[in-house]
Amino acid sequence: MTHLPGIVVTGASGRMGQMLVRTVAQSGRARLAAAVERPGHDWVGADIGEAMGGAALGVTVTDDPLEAFARAQAVIDFTAPQASVEFAALAAQARAVHVIGTTGLSDDQIAALEPAARHAVIIRAGNMSLGVNLLVGLTRKVAAALDADFDIEVIEAHHNRKVDAPSGTALMLGEAAAEGRGVTLAEAADRGRDGITGARERGHIGFSAIRGGDIVGEHDVLFAAPGERIVLRHVATDRAIFARGALRAALWGQDRAPGQYDMADVLGL
Ligand SMILES: NC(=O)C1=CN([C@@H]2O[C@H](COP(=O)(O)OP(=O)(O)OC[C@H]3O[C@@H](n4cnc5c(N)ncnc54)[C@H](OP(=O)(O)O)[C@@H]3O)[C@@H](O)[C@H]2O)C=CC1
Ligand SMILES: O=C(O)C1=N[C@H](C(=O)O)C[C@H](O)C1
């Protein structure tokens, strides 16, 4: 089945990396072309299926991303911010579609993706699930319909290994709420309240992050006014939803013009 698009998974030993390896290998719509880990990682040189504790998949884990990208049509990358910036340059060199699920990128790191996007397709989203991307549209709509009597709060919960906050999804939801309100998130965001904060400022968009156990990912957008509250909620119970979305993006990106895209583009939302 070598005519199927070849996909490289970076950070292949990670929580999302392993889910992506399984999703691609079982999809019937793409083939796993390579699995990348960093130099010195225990899994380098091993068959990725066996390293994951299952049957061999005939793909050896490599620590040479450029060589791997050069023999694939797409790279699916859920790793760490600086790694994703570096992988973007290599994917562009190989003219491979780069699907970035990594969250926690700084503004400078996001800007650093632009040169790569002049040569190749980059699809980046803080959440690749259909449900969250629908929730983003709903949040924008509800925020546009309500005035600032409704305080907007984004509340997210994740597992205890997550390293960034607010989550990428919470920031997408905050951006959507700000767009709906006709303000920028930079001017409206309240992140990390602690101590004598003073009363809540009218029109602000607040963020709260819970970290515990094995929570896959839960997001509430709360609109709270005197006498009533509206809550928009998404609950992820299985990382497969993110992996399926990422694979869909990798396939959608084939034959697109170079540039930066997001999941709303992929899903036609
Ligand atoms: N957009 C979406 O839908 C989703 C996004 N995410 C995001 O994906 C990212 C990964 O999450 P998760 O899988 O839980 O995290 P993990 O820590 O389980 O996995 C990250 C993987 O990336 C590897 N990695 C880190 N830096 C490098 C590097 N420089 N070169 C090669 N590999 C590297 C790690 O290797 P090592 O262990 O050696 O450091 C690890 O294997 C996070 O940013 C998370 O927020 C997660 C779920 C959904
Ligand atoms: O780190 C995670 O696990 C997740 N990260 C993404 C985020 O930051 O929003 C998406 C999902 O919620 C899981």
UniProtKB/TrEMBL annotation:
Organism domain of life: Bacteria
First-listed, main subcellular location of the protein, grouped into a coarse class: cytoplasm
Domain Dihydrodipicolinate reductase C-terminal: 131-267
Catalytic activities: (S)-2,3,4,5-tetrahydrodipicolinate + NADP(+) + H2O = (2S,4S)-4-hydroxy-2,3,4,5-tetrahydrodipicolinate + NADPH + H(+); (S)-2,3,4,5-tetrahydrodipicolinate + NAD(+) + H2O = (2S,4S)-4-hydroxy-2,3,4,5-tetrahydrodipicolinate + NADH + H(+)
Positions contributing to (S)-2,3,4,5-tetrahydrodipicolinate binding: 159, 168-169
GO biological-process terms attached to the record: diaminopimelate biosynthetic process; lysine biosynthetic process via diaminopimelate
Intracellular or extracellular location(s): Cytoplasm
Active-site residues (renumbered): 158 (proton donor/acceptor), 162 (proton donor)
Positions annotated to bind NADP(+): 38
Purpose: Catalyzes the conversion of 4-hydroxy-tetrahydrodipicolinate (HTPA) to tetrahydrodipicolinate.
NCBIfam families, A to Z: dapB
The protein's name in its UniProt record: 4-hydroxy-tetrahydrodipicolinate reductase
Natural source organism: Pukyongiella litopenaei
Upper lineage: Bacteria, Pseudomonadati, Pseudomonadota, Alphaproteobacteria, Rhodobacterales
Gene: dapB
